[in-house]
Amino acid sequence: MEKNVVMVVNPISGAIDKTEFINATKLFAKKVNCKLYIYKTSGKNDIANIKSLYDTYSPERIIIAGGDGTIKMVAEAIEKDNVILGVLPAGSSNGLAADLDLPETLEENLSVAFLNKYLEIDVIEINNEKSMHLSDLGLNAELIKNYEKSLIRGKWGYALQILTTIIDLEEPFKATITANNKTIECLARMIVIANAKKYGSGIIINPDGEMNDGKFELVILKNLDLIVLGKIITGNMPINSDDIEIISTDKATITTNSPVSFQMDGEYCGTKTRLDIKISPKRIKVAIP
Ligand SMILES: Nc1ncnc2c1ncn2[C@@H]1O[C@H](COP(=O)(O)OP(=O)(O)OP(=O)(O)O)[C@@H](O)[C@H]1O
Fold it and tell me: What are the record keywords, sorted (predicted)?
């Protein structure tokens, strides 16, 4: 019997034309006897529209051609269920794909996305929104805000914004963190709420992060001078220094003394002074090699 598959395509992600993604997916779906319904995101009402497609067609899989932000939208649209998400990485940052060790080529990724192996990953709920990969308060969110405002998309736009953001660096913020029945206060440049290990750029920020262990980590970057930044970028996270503290937990609250920029899975979410965070274990099925 033919199975239903929904394909969610983000036409603008990564500044990549998606024609090849759509054509290759149509062919593959036919080959494996699936009926394909294609939805192109518009940036408006996408979550509600995907939910309605999901309710109408009860797809066995949802194939996603986009970046982490597009995967997040699909995750928001589906309830805990039997649907498997297949990812065709096509964003400017493909952090989840990097953490899942997805292959390089479209053909290989189609095989992964349509075939049977999958991982049930945890989802982090932050102020009742879902994050599958990495969210953070502070410097990186500031960077993403500047990037989203800029007219240059893709990797170059992102690189340009690193420079602008670091030049305009504000004072560190004061954070109060409650987790594992303890409360700590600290000054921080950035706090990462991590389900996984690395950013789409390949930079490892949470060396022990596992997406299916029922826990998340708070990676507190207290100092981010050029030396610490250099160590992180070159893959030598100084985890045993006073500059970094990592807390592993399943529930936490973070409050800050002033509004701090916040991003979830690469999407800028404004400034926040309070985050209520909890893990939702094994919440979503994602196809893996
Ligand atoms: N047709 C569209 N026009 C404008 N924005 C869109 C459209 N479709 C989706 N979006 C927006 O794209 C974002 C998700 O992009 P995603 O993270 O998947 O890719 P990306 O390449 O990392 O993004 P970016 O475009 O920021 O480089 C969401 O904010 C969503 O609202």
Answer: ATP-binding, Kinase, Nucleotide-binding, Transferase
